[in-house]
Amino acid sequence: MTDPVLLRDEIEPGIVRLTFNRPEKLNALSTPMVRALEAELDAIAVDKNVRVVILTGAGERAFVAGADIAEYQGNRTREFAAYQFESRRVFDKLEALPKPTIAAIRGYALGGGFEIALCCDIILCGASARLGLPEGLLGLSPGGGGTQRLTRAVGRHMASDIMLAARRITGERAFQLGIAAAVVPDEELMPAAIERARAVLKVAPLAAAEMKRLIRQGADAALPTGLAFEQEVLLRLYGTNDGQEGIDAFLAKRDPEFRGE
Ligand code: COA
Fold it and tell me: What is the pLDDT of residues 124-156, one digit of tens each?
């Protein structure tokens, strides 16, 4: 039996890890992998026991080295379009997942791999990380949101340098640019991701989901719209059990018990 192309394991209660698993192909994103990712995201979205997701790549060489170029060859336009629509839908789903996501990157995160990372909330890089959108070298352009999300993340001119000159940036550079929240030696990457995930577990789940939405939707909204949305969210959270529990626990000097309601 072949190994599944996407592995799922529960690191500890509340923390699930998804591992892209085609190391011999640098975890290139095949159609079965995209579908497996969608199935996991659908399940995780409604599973109260999952509070935070770590995405990573199997092996030492890559997070994901892009869409599986072998699938592109000789494809008819209609099949190519179907792959693009499907992966775009799944990437959007990843970005909109109502739980925090952490991309833990060592080695190559190219094309669709970088685009997946850009859909995650927190990006951590190992020192070996190399991120880029090299589709131009194939005569193509990114199709999983890279031109839009990278530009929003780093601005037009830096995004142009990365795409138009097909540059691969290091984890350290990604950190300087504010893409990566941290860069650590490769062997410390997974422990660092787990530590971040544990910190996320301390934040009330409804609050995390709402803040995630505020950050994402607010980025594309006018400031007054974003501010109004923010206030509405806070008032709603104040009325939840968890909102009251957090306040009570602080004043009673005990740990809060959040139940996601
Ligand atoms: N799609 C399909 N297969 C891929 C792949 C991709 N995106 N990236 C790597 N692979 C495969 C290679 O074909 C090779 O398979 P093989 O051993 O059967 O020949 C294997 O993974 C190892 O890659 P290889 O190219 O031999 O390693 P390298 O160290 O020489 O180069 C990269 C590494 C990442 C620079 C190079 O693989 C590369 O440029 N990949 C494509 C990146 C890309 O353009 N991504 C965007 C796609 S839209």
Answer: 999 999 999 999 999 999 999 999 999 999 999
Domain ranges across the chain: 6-201, 205-252
CA 239, 241, 243, 248 torsion-angle sign: positive
Distance 113 CA to ligand 1 centre (A): 12
Closest approach atom of ligand 1 to CA 142? 48
- What pLDDT is recorded for position 2? 65
> Residue 115 CA to chain centroid, in angstroms?
8
Cβ–ligand 1 contact at 134 (below 6 Å): yes
Task: Place 76 in a pLDDT band, splitting at 50, 70 and 90.
Answer: confident
Number of H helices, E strands in the chain: 11, 10
Fold for the domain defined by 6-201: 2-enoyl-CoA Hydratase; Chain A, domain 1 (3.90.226)
Is the Cβ–Cβ distance between 66 and 20 less than 8 Å?
no
- The confidence score (pLDDT) of residue 72 equals 87
Nearest CA to ligand 1 atom 45: 66
Nearest residue (by CA) to ligand 1, atom 14, is 25
Question: Which whole-number Å values give the CA distances from 255 to 51, 194, 202, in the listed order?
Answer: 18, 20, 9
29 lines ligand 1 (CB under 6 A): no
> Judging by beta carbons within 10 Å of its beta carbon (0-12, 13-18, 19+), is residue 85 exposed, middle or buried?
exposed
57 lines ligand 1 (CB under 6 A): no
The residue contributing the CA closest to ligand 1 atom 39 is 65
Six-digit token pair at 42?
Answer: 């659908």
